[in-house]
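Long-time lurker. I teach an intro course on protein structure, and each term I like to show students one example going from raw sequence to a predicted 3D structure in token notation. This year I'd like something fresh instead of my usual example. Would anyone be willing to generate the tokens for the chain below so I can use it in lecture? Attribution to the forum is fine with me.
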Amino acid sequence: MRAIPDAAGTEWNGETYYGQASLKPSPFDWKIATYVYLAGIAGSSQIVATLADRLGDGRDETIVRNGRYLALAGALAGPPLLVADLKTPERFYNMLRIYRTSSPMSFGSFVLAGFGLASGLTALGHMAGERRRDGSRSGLRRAADMVQVPAAFLGAGMSTYTAALLSATSTPLWAAAPRAMAVQFGTSAMATAAAALSLGEQVAGDPENCRRLDGLAAIAAAGELVASALAERRHHEAGVGETLREGPIGSGYKAGALALGLGLPLACHAVNALSKRPSRGLSVLGSLAILAGGMVMRQAIFQAGNRSAERPDEYFRLTRREPEGTAPRRRVDRDLGTRGVRRPS
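-- Reply from a regular --
Happy to contribute to a lecture. Here you go:
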């Protein structure tokens, strides 16, 4: 038994087996982090494409097309990364044989499969049925437009379910702030998708669409910054998160995810929003910074989470507190053996 000081400075005298790790770190590595990154971009790209098609006009046609194609590309890139991580292709197939409502991994497998199917139908239907010159839509294009709503719904799941998957584990860093992590992943997915689509509009030469997408990316990045602060606060309250604040991982997270991925693009888009003649270079720089920062953020959270699993002090600090978003536990009278019955005073 080893005494370990907690966040308040007092000593935790619980069993740690001489400081040895109480948990086994997850096997998740760069492949899963990359999948989470691409899944977020794909899911939010489908959402943006659907909103542009439903609420926009003919000027948004390139956003709709690029969003649908980007969603399909992300859906196709996901399974190979998952199969490579599972080592055996049959394991991915077996996850689709049984649906378990209590398993985020089972839920995510079906979300990925459904999203891939819906995104394929929207992209192929769009490709085969482009708008006619008179502005009307062919039968294939109308079919693609009908599938885009369920595809966008599944895209929202793609953007956030990975946070639920991580939060369902016993890893202290991931389990301490499930709500904040879900918002952080969701807003980052929207920011990176808008940034990727903005770069597509730069290639197409449409500055007006770039301006609107940059505004969406800035709003999402601001939301991610708030979610990151809330997650940090929750980590501090739970006595975990040192692996994300200190050392090489912490330095990379602060410099890459926060400064490069959020601070720089917010500054670039703010300057363009206040300028009468927005700079194309600042728009491209802001978009590239968001894309790079989103990847750094996920890699850092994965690495820091695995490191936190190796720290028994963080695990015991977390387990002594009520999980975020849960109601206080009801008192159990051990003498009476009855749940919720208090001892008479």
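Some talking points for your students: Residues 4-10+23-322 form a domain with the Formate dehydrogenase/DMSO reductase fold fold (CATH 1.20.1630.10). The two ends are 37 Å apart (CA to CA).
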